[in-house]
Amino acid sequence: MSVSRQSRQWSAATYREQMMTFAGASADARVDATPRVVSRWVDIALAAPLTAGSQIAAWSGTFRGPVGVNALLALAMTVPLFWRRSRPLPVLSIVVAVVGIQALVFGATETAAVLLPLLAAVYSAAAYGGPAYVVASIALLGIVVHDLRDPLVDSPSQAWFSPLVTTAVFAVGRVVHSRRCQAEEAVARAAVAERDREQAIADAVESEQRRLGREVHDVVAHSISVMALHAGAAEQVLDRSPERAREALRLIQRTGHDAAREMGRLLSHEDGESREPLPSMSAVPELLGRVRAAGLDVDMIVEGARRDMTPALDLSLFRIVQEGLTNALKHAPSARTTVRVRYDKDAVSVEVLSEGPTARHENGSAGRGLRGIAERVDAVGGRLEAGPHAPSGWRLAAVVPAP
């Protein structure tokens, strides 16, 4: 193809079309810069004028050969451009095949009606199609066949134009393709990051719900157990010793107030407020006093010097002791119970041992409490043992690493 006025006019038209395409590829599922409807209208706006122009050229006798046949070939060359984004490689193959057939049968014609559809197909395949070597091979085949059958291409000075322009269009298309791929990867990474963020939030919410459930269970289960025992004692002595019954009722009232206060501390902690500290191992003597008042025979043995611990670890150890005493109150109120706390160099061990007859309950409450304690111990990297103790009784023991 020689340099004609129509050929030179190609660059501005194709540049504008390329800019419209590039400016428009990202909101749809294939990360086009424009929505699919707009992209479709851009394709129509490109293909329709090229189709009309090729028909005018065919019916005006611009092509070599019969007018009717050339009109059909011109349709076959331009109509596929309506699908240049969705089927870029098939469109390029069809356009190159038609250009080659027309050149081989009738001889190549020097006209923009051939050049522009071919370049549009090359750009579309480079920007939206497959591997670069496939697109380049098909485009090169079309250019070579056309130029070999073009009588105006009779010297090296005439042969450079078609490959140069096609290479430039191909390069622009590959730049667009590269940017589209980068955009797709960025969108994919953003989608993965968003899914990971949502999953992390869901995991955090679930973990916090479990933690809060453990706290509420420990507070409520212990307080209800203590109040139930005091209520039973008050009922037994109500007639013969009203003063002892009143004392039991006062203990029930105090236990209820303590539970309400601890729930207030817990909820204020959840709201991010800093009112009263949550329980720690320093509150164990007070806890023992309450369960002794409820009728449980309990002693405490401390081995080693008490050490500073993180608030989470301190609270977890307190809850372990509380759960062990709660189970003793509910299932072995007549058993002798020992709380043993040992502070080693790199660990703290807590044991609640009930020695005596143990009642069997199957309401599942103790199971939930033990599961909560197991989660606490696992969260601080410790190990938990819970089960019957020979010859009779129950043992709850935990060892956790200490900072």
From TrEMBL:
Organism the protein comes from: Kribbella antiqua
Recorded coiled-coil stretches: 183-210
Assigned keywords, A-Z: ATP-binding, Coiled coil, Kinase, Membrane, Nucleotide-binding, Phosphoprotein, Transferase, Transmembrane, Transmembrane helix, Two-component regulatory system
Enzyme nomenclature, EC number: 2.7.13.3
Keyword set includes Repeat: no
Keyword Ion transport: no
Domain (DUF7134) ranges: 40-180
This protein's GO CC annotations: membrane
PANTHER family: NITRATE/NITRITE SENSOR PROTEIN NARX-RELATED, NITRATE_NITRITE SENSOR PROTEIN NARQ
Single Gene Ontology MF annotation: protein dimerization activity
Reaction catalyzed: ATP + protein L-histidine = ADP + protein N-phospho-L-histidine
Source organism, top-level taxon: Bacteria
InterPro entries documented for this protein: DUF7134, HATPase_C_sf, Sensor_HK_TwoCompSys, Sig_transdc_His_kin_sub3_dim/P
Residue ranges annotated for the Signal transduction histidine kinase subgroup 3 dimerisation and phosphoacceptor domain, each copy included: 208-269
TM stretches of this protein: 67-83, 89-108, 120-145, 157-176
Protein known as: histidine kinase
SUPFAM superfamilies recorded: ATPase domain of HSP90 chaperone/DNA topoisomerase II/histidine kinase
